[in-house]
């Protein structure tokens, strides 16, 4: 079967199509690449993709036409420590970090990540949502949080509320919004009608948008979710009381309501859950050994998932009566 908007960017033709949705998880997103590699080896091709934070980053690269094999090569060659960029006030010795927080609400800029992604997308001839869209419909959905308007933002769809042409908006900028962990990376500002909205990490509102592509009735093809094994204690319960750990616990607490909904049995059965190998969200100094371990965990988790996954059974049990 050959269907999909990604066709202009992908040479291979696969026979199993699905949508992919990725949970946020920072540097641990490396595990997604391992899972995607196994899925693609088994014939899966992605029609649409969505995600929060690093999930948005992975989703954007997929919709631009990157294969899992290409993503693996990128992982090996990337120095993730550079993601902790200190521009402007942050470059001042000793007082740089406090100044960054006071003046721009962040320890690090986030500019490097945006430029890094922009260059990767450009290598596939992709810059804006219009470059990957067909008839004005984007196959990519990115989740961010507007803390000024106190609401979730789905990009590119919700750009209309800011008076912005969604098809002309840069994908790298949208991903930058979704990965902007409060007080870690600088928030992105959107100005509309003399009001400035601060856009930050989508995990504040929805860290795992597994239902984003769902339609009433029987779906034409499955949505496969990629997330991390969340059976872990809070940061503060383990004695970590620094500002970032505190903030991450606040974000997880705020999202517990939607997390419960998203991990109902009907959603768990279509989710690949990947162990984190003890890697935390902001461990950008990750070693090569940890990179390979996360990748391996992702690969094996996808293998286990496909041993029991059956789309027809899923539809019959959870969607046939909707």
What would your notes on this structure say?
Helix content is 36%, strand content 17%. It is of the alpha/beta class. α1 (30-41) links the parallel β1 (16-22) and β2 (44-52). The radius of gyration is 19 Å and the shape is globular. The two termini are 25 Å apart.
Descriptors:
single chain; 322 residues; alpha/beta; 17% strand; globular
Main beta sheet strand tally, sense and closure: 8 strands, mixed
| Span between termini | 25 Å
Radius of gyration: 19 Å
Shape: globular
Number of strands: 10
Q: Provide the helix percentage.
A: 25-40%
Structural class: alpha/beta
Low-pLDDT stretches are 1-13
Number of helices: 11
Q: On the 0-100 scale, what is the average pLDDT?
A: 84
| Series of secondary-structure elements, N-terminal to C-terminal | EHEHHHEHEEHEEEEHHHEHH
Tell me the strand percentage band.
15-25%
Q: Could you write a compact summary of the structure shown?
A:
It contains eleven helices and ten strands. It has helices at residues 30-41, 54-64, 68-77, 96-104, 111-122, 171-179, 243-254, 256-262, 265-268, 288-308, 311-319; strands at residues 16-22, 44-52, 106-108, 140-146, 151-155, 183-185, 188-192, 195-201, 223-228, 271-274. Strands 1, 2, 4, 5, 7, 8, 9 and 10 form an eight-stranded mixed beta sheet that branches.
Topology:
Elements lengths: L15 E7 L7 H12 L2 E9 L1 H11 L3 H10 L18 H9 L1 E3 L2 H12 L17 E7 L4 E5 L15 H9 L3 E3 L2 E5 L2 E7 L21 E6 L14 H12 L1 H7 L2 H4 L2 E4 L13 H21 L2 H9 L3
Parallel strand pairs: 1-2, 1-9, 2-4, 3-6, 9-10
Antiparallel strand pairs: 4-5, 4-8, 7-8
Helix pairs in contact: 1-3, 1-10, 2-6, 5-6
């Amino acid at each position: 079967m050959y269907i999909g908007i990604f066709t202009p960017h992908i040479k291979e033709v696969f026979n199993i199509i699905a949508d992919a949705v990725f949970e946020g998880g920072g540097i641990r997103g490396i595990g997604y690449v391992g899972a995607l590699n196994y899925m693609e080896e088994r014939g899966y091709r992605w029609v649409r993709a969505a995600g929060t934070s690093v999930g948005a980053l992975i989703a954007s690269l997929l919709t631009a036409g990157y294969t899992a094999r290409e993503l693996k090569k990128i992982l090996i060659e990337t120095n993730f420590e550079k993601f902790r960029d200190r521009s402007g006030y942050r470059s001042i010795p000793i007082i740089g970090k406090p100044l960054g927080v006071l003046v721009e609400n962040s320890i690090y800029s986030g500019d490097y990540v945006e430029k890094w992604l922009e260059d990767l997308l450009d290598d596939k001839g992709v810059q804006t949502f219009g470059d990957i869209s067909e008839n004005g419909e984007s196959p990519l959905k990115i989740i961010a949080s507007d803390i000024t308007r106190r609401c979730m933002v789905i990009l590119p769809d919700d750009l209309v509320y800011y008076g912005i042409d969604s098809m002309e908006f840069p994908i790298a900028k949208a991903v930058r919004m979704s990965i902007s962990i409060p007080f870690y990376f600088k928030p992105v500002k959107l100005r509309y009608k003399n009001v400035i909205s601060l856009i930050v990490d989508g995990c504040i509102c929805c860290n795992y948008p597994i239902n984003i592509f769902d339609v009433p009735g029987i779906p034409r093809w499955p949505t496969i979710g990629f997330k991390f094994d969340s059976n872990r204690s809070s940061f503060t319960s383990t004695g970590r009381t620094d500002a970032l750990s505190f903030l991450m616990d606040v974000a997880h607490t705020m999202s517990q309501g939607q997390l419960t909904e998203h991990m109902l049995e009907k959603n768990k059965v279509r989710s690949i859950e990947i162990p984190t190998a003890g890697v935390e969200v902001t461990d950008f100094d990750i070693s090569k050994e940890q990179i390979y371990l996360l990748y391996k965990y992702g690969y094996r988790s996808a293998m286990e998932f496909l041993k029991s996954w059956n789309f027809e059974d899923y539809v019959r049990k959870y969607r046939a009566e909707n």
